[in-house]
């Protein structure tokens, strides 16, 4: 299923806007595109919302016919326990996270110990934990960690854009992670020469115009056959002003959704 994530509304949520988009505003914008899945991922207000506020947001999502996934950073047992409770409020069946969090950077043995402690509760609740591919942990080691956890409720959130910072090749990472991928983050990416030809900038691109070989990912991962959701997000740089940035962000979202619907 195609979904939108909060990173598709990164600038619209930001305090650079005169009126930042609320979570419910993003829900409504998602439904306007006839998309029925939303991933609340790394959305800071979620960390401080009361249970009442969470229940109200969950009710708004249900009223709009939206399925919800969640996202955070870190795998400390306390964090995973808290977000499992939030998942219950939203009836979310997937939590995306990262091995490295804002308050911890565990060794892989420590990470495995934490996961071993937390995963039985995820299994009992029917919630899947998706650990994202990032430069902090080699993809090979991440796949090994997921396999060592030995649970049907853990896998990889595959984002080939992130791994370039580790000098991993996106196509190779797709092939390595494909068997254990349970979630996909969809964004295109490209290199551009800096002024004066003194280096490159690595950043986002409108979907279908950059270096991401998404047909290859579809062949390797087979997300639509396996029920793996594809979540739209962007790496969009500031466009010089709020109005231009919002226009570009909205256009990239429409482009990506159209692209995903057109490609098989």
Automatic annotation (TrEMBL):
It holds the Pfam family AP_endonuc_2. Keywords: Isomerase. This is Sugar phosphate isomerase/epimerase family protein. Residues 79-255 form the Xylose isomerase-like TIM barrel domain. InterPro entries: IolE/XylAMocC-like, Xyl_isomerase-like_sf, Xyl_isomerase-like_TIM-brl. Gene3D superfamilies: Divalent-metal-dependent TIM barrel enzymes. It comes from Glycomyces mayteni. GO terms for molecular function: isomerase activity.
